[in-house]
Input
Amino acid sequence: MAASDRELKDAFNLYDRKGTGNIAASSLGDLLRAVGQNPSEAEVQDLIAQHDPNGTTVLSFGTFTTIVGRTDGYKPAATVPEMIEGFRAFDRENTGVVSASELRHVLSTMGETLSATEIDAFMETVQVDKDGNVNYEVFVRELLA
Output
């Protein structure tokens, strides 16, 4: 759901610490996530390159609203069926589960990787059965709930 103009301005002002009407380009990803978007780090870098071609390292509120208003700005990270299908690639025996160690490996090596500390914190929330496996359908539904 798109943020209102007021919400955008309020969020922007939290990152405009000096009140200059600009934010550090390095804050763009966090700011977009604060208003409900979910860009990857690669997408954030592309947006910065597009909207700060001279490398000033700052973005104005007008530029920020242009970025927020892009067509694919509020796309979901993935749908439940897409994520379940992705986990099936790791379920060689078609059992509906992946090992917790394999999940940990995927989180540390694929896509936007997580640090060991982030993975440890994340894994504390995952339901692991007595055999050390995670039912990935349940996991995905809880993750995206």
Notes: The mean pLDDT is 89. The longest strand covers residues 22-24. The helical segments are 5-15, 28-34, 41-51, 61-68, 80-88, 100-109, 116-123, 136-143.
